[in-house]
Amino acid sequence: MICAVAHDYNSWRDRARILLHRNVSPDEVLWSSAPLLFEAEPADTLTQPIPLPRLFVITAETVARHRDPMRWHLLYRIAWRLLNENHDLMAIETDDDIRELAKMRKAVDHDIYQMRAFIRFRRVMTDGTERFVAWYEPDHDTLDANAKFFTDRFGGMRWTILGSQLSLSWDLHALHRGPGVPRSHAPAEDELEGVFRAYYSATYNPARLNICAMKAQLPVRRWKDLPEAQAIAGLVRQSRERVSAMVSAQSGGASTFIPRDAILPVLRKSVGACRACELCSLATQPVFGEGPPDARIVLVGEQPGEEEDYSGRPFVGPAGQILDLALQEAGLDREQCYLTNAVKAFRFEERGKRRIHQTPRGVHIATCRPWLEAEMSLIRPEMIVCLGSTAAQSVTGRSVVIREVRGQFFPHPWADAIAITYHPSAILRAPNESVQRQTKAALIDDLTAAKNRLAAAAALEV
């Protein structure tokens, strides 16, 4: 029996290379995360790589972060089988080893995602210097896997993330690794805690309370690290009373016209009866969204134009033709996208026989938002791309300057991420050819980035 010690992916790889080069059977190797007192591990070295599939290598790098002590044996057994039994073993999803590998990879990926969602910083002042400190204990060895995410997201502030096994610290210039510390080293509550609780209470929707779903998305074991979680118990108790108050206060908003538990075809039919504002009665017809009900990406525009108003379909006019070309250049298939608008009816001003486009007012955006929310709750897209400031205001609830926010991805309750870019009509309205080219290039770049993010997410799910 050979004892091989591994504490991370690199150390496992180095030892596995030696054993695989010798063609040592998995049954002859005892893997451990700490040195044992018997059966010394191989002392020689081997720098020549072993020809393993790239998919296995990438997956192994992730699974090495799992805290199951059997992960090293599983990785070695699969590597040995890839070399000696079937080089295409990774494609056999029903194989017991491959299923266990996929299960571990999914657990690690989920742990990485949860850290991004559930970590909370506290403001600490030391010698006049502001620093933000958080405590977080991941389920697996994933603390440093999020280092780039936090340096990219919070690169303009000094922060420290403490954990029992490892600590990370950013000083505006470089990332530093430190030893783990007890939880008692984490700072006490600061003034931002009240802000978190107030924001959570203000945005909490009692009408959509689902205790089981909430615990699945917000595990109870994480509540102690989240200041807003302290308000959950009280909000749940008040839900029934708040729902009754909301129903009583409702006075003809768009929600009145939205059937409960309706599917997309029913919503599409129902929007024709909406009279929450004056736009539907003045337009030829409201224009509902169009596309696959399980679309991974949703494109949200401003409102229908004149041609859309007549045809009843979104993005079929001049701006729609520009969008089609941009989607094609970005490598996105329009037939795989769901296209809709923040405001469902054409707002215009009559000048003789002409109808001149008018930008929707804030009241129109707010009134029509329940229709958009209903669409998103059924589709549950991974990505929402807001085309223009009206769409961005409807989705985010605030005004934005496109040039300041484009090229970024933001979390949102309706999707894994949202992106904000120019509306294709901005290309048509460009004052000169140079601005037109720049705006078109920006739109294509942002659509391409959205496509690439979806592709990367799909690769992780494989």
Structural commentary:
- The chain has 462 residues and is α/β, with parallel strands linked by helices.
- The chain folds into 4 domains: 2-114, no CATH class; 119-185, no CATH class; 196-249, no CATH class; 254-461, Uracil-DNA glycosylase-like domain (Uracil-DNA Glycosylase, subunit E, 3-Layer(aba) Sandwich), CATH 3.40.470.
- Helices cover 43% and strands 14% of the residues.
- The protein contains 17 helices and 14 strands.
- The protein has a 5-stranded mixed sheet, with no helix packed on it. Strands 9-8-12-14-13 form a 5-stranded mixed sheet, with helices on both faces. Strands 1-2 form a two-stranded parallel sheet.
- Helix 2 packs across helix 4 (96-118), helix 3 (71-84) crosses helix 4 (96-118) and helix 12 packs across helix 17.
- The radius of gyration is 27 Å and the shape is globular.
- 29% of the residues are buried.
- Residues 244-252 have low confidence and may be disordered.
Short description:
This protein has 462 residues and is of the alpha/beta class. The protein has four domains: 2-114, no CATH class; 119-185, no CATH class; 196-249, no CATH class; 254-461, 3-Layer(aba) Sandwich (Uracil-DNA Glycosylase, subunit E). It is 43% helix and 14% strand.
The CATH architecture of the largest domain can be given as 3-Layer(aba) Sandwich
- Classified in CATH, the superfamily of the largest domain is Uracil-DNA glycosylase-like domain
- Top-tier CATH class of the largest domain: Alpha Beta
What's the helix count? 17
State the CATH topology of the largest domain.
Uracil-DNA Glycosylase, subunit E
Domains, number = 4
Rg is 27 Å
Q: List the strand order in the largest sheet.
A: 3-4-5-6-7
Q: Which word captures the global form?
A: globular
- In round numbers, the mean pLDDT is 87
**Structural class by SSE content:** alpha/beta
Report the β-strand fraction as a percent range. 5-15%
N→C terminal distance:
35 Å
Low-confidence stretches: 244-252
Q: What kind of assembly state do the chains in view correspond to?
A: single chain
> Biggest β-sheet: count, sense, barrel?
5 strands, mixed
Number of strands: 14
Helix content: 40-55%
